[in-house]
Amino acid sequence: MYCKWSVRYVEYCGAIAMALLCAGIIRLGMLGKLHLYIHPRYTIFTLVMAGVGLIVSLVSMMAGCRLRQTIKPAVYTGIRPTTMRVATALLLVMACAGFLFVQPATLSSRTAVSRGIDRNPTLTDVSVSQALFDTADYSQLGIKDWSSLLAHYDANFIVGKTASITGFVADNGNANIFFASRFFVTCCVVDAQPIGVPVYAPDWRHRYAPNSWLEITGEFIENPDADSLHKIVLKPSRIQSVTPPREPYVY
């Protein structure tokens, strides 16, 4: 005998989970933290769809309550195929509830390292880098621009130029070099790609902690560390601790 009440209960839990998830998204929007998860250009669309999803889930729950009142619980014996469904639904509800109350946070330096911060990812094509090459004022370039130039141009062009960048510390395993890093986001944090500039600071671990945000000014030099694969590094003349920016990602 099939237990109709259990099936309706699972569907009811699914509606609760959707409501919690949509409420969590709306909460992030009200806190101004939705940009920690998606590109800002998708904010309005995401909030509108979350509002629609919340309304649909609430209507579904009300309809489910009325339907449950008309169905008497049936006794089910033997192996219960709906047990796993109920357990899965409850886990989904708890996960969505956790998302609703979790403290929003940016991606960490560990994520940057695991996604290949030390491989100098190419985020722009040669034509864009050529526009950076032709600029008259390199002091205005940010961490994304320098990361692109490091990927496309050799030491003859980079060495001797000064830069001022802001990023968080990422440990790539070298005691003399860390990466000033940020994440480049095209859609959401799932596709976020770490970018960064290698900074030459011997024994840096005694002074700077991973994930701490720094504002670094210095000059690009040929890498004096023979154990590093990077040909060019930024030798800082000034390093200052700063608070995380309101927009931690670059686009």
From TrEMBL:
Transmembrane segments: 12-30, 42-65, 86-105
InterPro entries on file: DUF1980, DUF1980_C, UPF0703_membrane_permease
Keywords tagged on the record: Membrane, Transmembrane, Transmembrane helix
A UniProt-annotated Pfam family: DUF1980_C
Statement: the UniProt record of this protein carries the keyword Lipoprotein: no
Domain named DUF1980: residues: 147-251
Protein name: TIGR03943 family protein
Organism name: Candidatus Southlakia epibionticum
